[in-house]
Write a structure and sequence with these properties.
- The protein has 404 residues and is mainly β.
- The chain has a domain at 121-382: Methylamine Dehydrogenase, Chain H.
- The chain has two helices and 29 strands.
- The protein has helices spanning 222-225, 294-307, and strands spanning 33-37, 49-57, 74-76, 82-87, 92-97, 102-108, 123-128, 131-135, 140-144, 150-155, 162-163, 171-177, 184-191, 199-206, 211-216, 228-230, 235-236, 240-245, 248-253, 256-263, 268-272, 290-291, 309-316, 321-331, 344-354, 360-365, 376-379, 382-389, 392-402.
- The strands form seven sheets. Strands 1-2-29-28-27 form a five-stranded antiparallel sheet, with no helix packed on it. Strands 11-15-14-13-12 form a five-stranded mixed sheet, with no helix packed on it. Strands 3-4-5-6 form a four-stranded antiparallel sheet, with no helix packed on it.
- The chain is globular, with a radius of gyration of 21 Å.
């Protein structure tokens, strides 16, 4: 085994509407590491896992890249060679070559007006080599080309839509197109808040038919039951991931392992039902989800994070596999009285590997990934994990090898 060293400085803060969980790493050189592990079988035979880890630094060419939002508003070219990142400060589109590992150029956009991109963003999605979607509100989306030219606007409340338009109390946080198509828009519609129903649905907007269709992605009301609130107006709802992977619209949930995907042929929503041998399949609520004080609120949320928190699903085109990371946190028993939400004292990261049909191939604990992971994607047979190292863009790459 090759020894490696990872030095880090971390901070943890709370985020959803009011809160976030973030952690900044500072580290020296991360060398290649190989490790093998065999999972014990409970319900199925899982393949042994070998993996390697390395680190990639991106040359910013003297520019200051926007890393504040953890690449949440970023996307890829069709071949995944180019990463496009939306800069919130100078309203530019950063074009980064992931093969050459350097910033290529920045294109600047109009900020204000009907053809502008706005100043805050609820969605960003690259869906072709020359088209991307930007939304700066909860009710519409704009399409631009990569030069920043405005193409058109889509309103979810337009009366021309047949079906169920966005209602007054509903919001649309995330919106995507399937790659190389503008005919069908997918979005998560929700009613959320301490005094609301906390209901979520997947809405599919078909421009060719002029029709909005809705699908229930929370039949057992887990989104509602895993939403926390307090009498002093603290509120947290689970993060729902909506993404395009392998030409599928995927929906998943941070507190359950459920994965939904939309079948374009049958026009139906399909559920991926799988069980983990290493972690809980969902957070078990040990408390009432409506709490009395801020302290009880944070204590309840810490209890949820200590059980399990699931990340989104990403697709590896090279190996034709899906990957999903999940996490468990441990907290200090007696945190400082001055810290409402204490820093985690320990973090465990797990990976689940699926084949193209979403059958579980294997799962494993990855001890080296003991830091907060905010964003990751699959490319060239590896999982690229975002890291902000002293305002430099860095990726820690995890390569999973099975039966080797």
């Amino acid at each position: 085994m090759i020894n490696w060293k990872l030095e880090r400085q971390s901070y943890l803060s709370f985020f959803y509407l009011y809160f976030s969980i973030m952690k900044k790493l500072a580290f020296g050189t991360l060398l290649m590491l190989f490790f093998s592990c065999q999972n014990k079988d409970k319900n199925q035979t899982l393949e042994p896992v070998n993996y390697s880890i390395d680190t990639v630094f991106i040359d910013s060419k003297g520019e200051i890249l926007d890393l504040k939002y953890n690449l949440v508003n970023s996307g890829f070219s069709n071949d995944k060679r180019t990463l496009y990142n939306l800069n919130h400060f100078d309203f530019s589109l950063e074009k980064i070559d992931l093969t050459q590992k350097e910033l290529i150029t920045k294109n600047y956009f109009q900020k204000n007006g009907p053809s502008g991109i706005g100043s805050s963003f609820t969605s960003f999605h690259v869906f072709s080599d020359n088209s991307f979607l930007i939304s700066n509100d909860f009710y519409s989306a704009k399409i631009f080309n990569h030069k920043g030219d405005f193409i058109k606007k889509i309103s979810l409340r337009d009366k021309k839509w047949k079906g169920e338009r966005l209602k007054e109390e509903e919001i649309s946080r995330k919106k995507i197109f399937l790659r190389n198509s503008t005919a069908r828009l997918f979005t998560i519609i929700s009613k959320e808040g301490p005094l609301k129903s906390n209901k979520v649905e997947l809405a599919v907007l078909d421009s060719d038919e002029g029709l909005i269709s809705r699908f229930n992605i929370d039949p057992e009301q887990k989104f509602k039951s895993h939403s926390l609130s307090s009498t002093d107006n603290h509120y947290m709802s689970p993060r729902i991931y909506l993404s395009e992977e392998n030409n599928l619209a995927l929906v998943s949930h941070e507190f359950t392992n459920e994965i939904y995907w939309f079948d374009n042929l049958s026009q139906e929503l399909q559920l991926v039902d799988y069980k983990s041998n290493l972690t809980p399949n969902e957070v078990e609520l040990k408390i009432n989800n409506h709490l009395g004080t801020k302290e009880e609120f944070f204590e309840g949320y810490m209890s949820m994070l200590s059980q399990i928190r699931f990340g989104p699903v990403t697709y590896d085109e090279l190996n034709e596999q899906y990957y999903r990371l999940s996490y468990q946190l441990e907290f200090e028993e007696s945190p400082s009285q001055n810290i409402a939400f204490p820093e985690a004292s320990k973090r465990k990261t797990f990976i689940t590997v699926f084949d193209k049909e979403f059958n579980v191939i294997t799962e494993a604990l990855i001890p080296e990934l003991d830091f907060i992971i905010t964003n990751y994607f699959a490319k060239d047979g590896k999982i690229w994990i975002f890291n902000n190292y002293n305002d430099e863009l860095v990726f820690i790459r995890l390569q999973i090898n099975i039966n080797e």
